[in-house]
Amino acid sequence: MPPMLQFLLSRLVKAVLVLGVVVILNFLLIHAAPGDPATVMAGEAGAADQAFVDQLRTQFGLDQPLYVQLGTYVGHIVQGDLGFSFRQQRPVADLLLERLPATVVLTLSAFVLALVGGVALGLLAALNVGKWADSAITVVALLSYATPIYWVGLMLVLVFSVNLGWLPAFGYETIGAGYSGVEKLADIGSHMFLPVVTLGLFYMAVYTRMMRASALEVASMDFVKTARAKGQTEWNIVTRHVLRNAILPILTVAGIQAGQLIGGSILVESVFAWPGLGRLTFDAVLQRDYQVLLGVFFVTSVLVIAFNILTDLLYVLIDPRVEITT
Amino acid sequence: MPQTETETQAPGVAPPLLEIKNLTVALPDEAERPFAVEKVRYTLNPDEILCVVGESGSGKSVTAHAIMGLLPKPDLRIAAGRILYRGQNIVAMSEAEQRALRGHRIAMIFQEPMTALNPLMRVGDQIEEALIIHTDLDRKARKARVVEMLDAVGLPSPETLRKSYPFRLSGGQRQRVMIAMALALKPDILIADEPTTALDVTTQKQILDLIKTIQREHKMAVLFITHDFGVVAEIADRVAVMRHGRVVELGPAQEVLTAPKAEYTRALIDSLPHGRPTDATVARGGPALLAAEGVTKVYRSGGTRVSKRTELVVSDNIYLTIHPGETVGLVGESGSGKSTLARAIVGLLKPDGGRILFQGTDLLSLDRAGFRPFRRHVQMVFQDPYASLNPRHKVAEIIAQGPIAFGTPRAEALARARELLGVVGLDASAGGRYPHEFSGGQRQRISIARALAMEPQLLIADEPVSALDASVQAQVLDLLADIKAKLNLAMLFITHDLRVAAQICDTVGVMQHGRIVEYGAATEVFGHPTDPYTRALLDAIPGQAWHASHPPSGGPPS
């Protein structure tokens, strides 16, 4: 078997094991939280008596011992069934599938923006170390890093939507406009702009700071001097020698953070009323909608594990010193 | 002064290829002296090897970097003077013009082959890069040239090696790649900045031979920077000696080596480890202080993730004894297992098998608490004086820490620390300062004082002088010899430098691939080596013919 395939297989086996543990932990954690869907639904229904709550509990299977509930849940997961939301009266899988694209589009764009912007700005700062460009970039990065995400979101809305009126403040697309084709894309793009910037800015600041430090370190290395001694131009030295070496530590962190972005998007989706997983999660928490929450956790876990495998593969491609062993 | 030799050129003599005229390089304002190099002048002719010798901070490397236009900006700048390449002033050239010379007509190789190559690029591509920059050769012609160059520097199977990444190659092989890269465009001048300093002695010999051969073949001019007069004796046609940024002596190698004019040159040559075994004989009778029996250690690294997995056997069945007052030297090349053995004795790592007997007690059988009393009997001095002292602690505290940990009252330990500073030749006031305020040699003295504070019976010195300049090295070696005589201290002295080992050790063990291949009295091992590896090591010592014919004027203190 080729080593690459062997590596992937072994990682997949491990991923399944990890996922199993995560599923069980998620379940236990959620049930450790006070309250359950029955009390919330009963509360919303007005003054409900204990009999009504008990009836709801029996209906949802909440009256069973915890290990039985866990067994039922795991059994369903193994069969690929993510459960049913009594709250929304729909299968959890449907809910997730409906929301997932919006979140993936948002987080992926923010991730790419953070990575590309961070690497570019960090490199620029490192090349101009000590000059005004470096200082400006460092200050902006520090500010974006230190400012709470939701506040940045609110301020951006205030400036670009409320005051200037350039961009829509919330939502995924203009409701009822009936756009199609290019127009539809442009519409979604304009809606995406602010949330993506808000979410991406924080991570971009992290990457900028890392990239600056990393590039400075690499630029002082002997092989950069070797390249210069060859008569290589500064531009080629940066692109051919500094960039590739300096980006390695960024990849490691980015791989871990790619999974976290979904968590970060909960706030941003709430601020911008973005119809994604984040909003779904937020609502589910308030409503103690266990099935939906567990579904979201499950999907996030899968994404995190997938990103980790992807990062390891990327490392093998970029750094020849890293080899695949199983 | 001999520095003016090029001013009056005899007609018919080829003009110098490179002329450095009154070069002055300014240091930043906060530096301890205003100029890195001051009014340096020397010339480099076609078809010659000019060695520039000096200790660290002498400006030998700065001059070379100035020629290449590689001075670190903005810290160092050329304040005055000219660098003439075929009559054209490099200093006045634009960046683009300088770039056209760099790597094309003037090429450079560096000290550290392990870091001088881009780890993410195939070595062939790195050589090809120089060809892409400076020639119009098509891809096929470039590939052919790369293979040709790799072959010319004596690398095996160049066709496959071309596609290797640097981490696959040894230090010597990487330095060959660097040479291939530097020579790819058949430059007029090769600047070699301590190219063999980081290499093992046998590899050093090969690289020196290679540089010499190629130089003769292409009638190239080589500017060879080194701190080692042995290397100078091996390859130089002419020598320039530098000190504190100035050229103090310049002349034909034969003259400088045998009849140095400048006081400083003489001092430098005298400070070389003379390599003659000590006359004093130590009685090796009686019970051994320390005996290592059948010590083995296997290194495994790597795991199940994306990483390398290697298994390395170091210290394979080692037998070694040290008697009170005896200095045992362990010599060998990097990776031979010298340091592993030393670390096992101090208890810094756990061997996989064997016994280490200290006065009859097997140290390996002891648990942590049982080992503790032995810690003070065995002390260690490390190689890098810059990394082995805690930068946040004052010197007196560093020295007193050990005794305090073993119950000596603090005031007493600190007083003793100041005494010890005197013993190692430092002022007692040094105790109140921090390590960074001291030079490398001084720091190594502090390290020795720290070890002595525990009143050890055995001192383990792991390459204690390899990071130091020759003159400082001699002083520290003298100090160690002095201390061991006064205190009747047993010492395990680890070094890669056979000249140093010969000078300070009573008994020598030669290590190769984790084994001691030869063990005996220093006079015997160096005088009549029986093992082929020992012979190869001795043969590789640079400048032997010169050492033999010109014993240093100073000589060892009798």
Describe what you observe in this structure:
Chain B: It is a peripheral membrane protein. Chain B: One of its GO terms (cellular component) is plasma membrane. The complex is a heterodimer of chains A (326) and B (558). Chain A contains twelve helices and two strands; from the N terminus they run ααααββαααααααα. Chain A is an all-alpha fold. Chain A folds into two domains: 3-92, no CATH class; 94-289 and 301-318, MetI-like (MetI-like fold, Orthogonal Bundle), CATH 1.10.3720. In chain A, helix 1 (3-32) runs antiparallel to helix 12. The radius of gyration of chain A is 24 Å and the shape is globular. In chain A, 32% of the residues are buried. The mean pLDDT of chain A is 82. With 558 residues, chain B is an alpha/beta fold. In chain B, the strands form four sheets. Chain B has a six-stranded mixed sheet, sandwiched between helices. In chain B, strands 16-17-18-13-19-20 form a six-stranded mixed sheet, with helices on both faces. In chain B, strands 2-1-4-5 form a four-stranded antiparallel sheet, with helices on one face. In chain B, helix 15 (440-452) runs parallel beside helix 16. The two termini of chain B are 36 Å apart. Chains A and B meet through helix 9, helix 10 and helix 12 of A and helix 2, helix 3 and helix 6 of B.
